[in-house]
Amino acid sequence: MDTRQLLAETEDVAIGITENLASNRSLIIGAHDRIQETGGMMGNARNILRRMQRQETRRKVILAGLILFLVTVIILIFYSVLSKGTKESTQPHTL
Question: CA–CA separation, 17 vs 22, rounded Å?
């Protein structure tokens, strides 16, 4: 009878271990799926950050070009005003 009782206890322990392993397996599979999903989200986030960085660089280049254009226009206006002023002062006055 001791042998049968030992066999029954061993069987109960084996069933408990099997259930525990099944539960752990489902937890591991769930964690694996979440990790894959997180990896996908990280890839998407990386792509979004790259696009934002390219847009920011494009805006900086456009802004620098606009500043350069405006500085050039201001210099040309000053040059035009100063050159007219020197032409008028070098011409003799007639009455």
Answer: 9
Q: Which residues contact 51 (CB under 8 A, 6 or more apart)?
A: none
Dihedral, 43, 49, 55, 58 alpha carbons, nearest 10: -100
pLDDT in tens, 30-51: 999 999 999 889 999 999 999 9
Tell me phi and psi for residue 91, to 5 degrees.
-80, 140
Beta-carbon count within 10 A of 13 CB: 10
Tokens of 75: 């210099």
Amino acid, res. 68: L
Alpha carbons 72 and 82: distance in angstroms, whole number: 15
pTM value?
A: 0.55
CA-based end-to-end distance of the chain: 143
Residue 93: DSSP 8-state: P
Dmax over Cα atoms in the chain, in whole Å?
A: 143
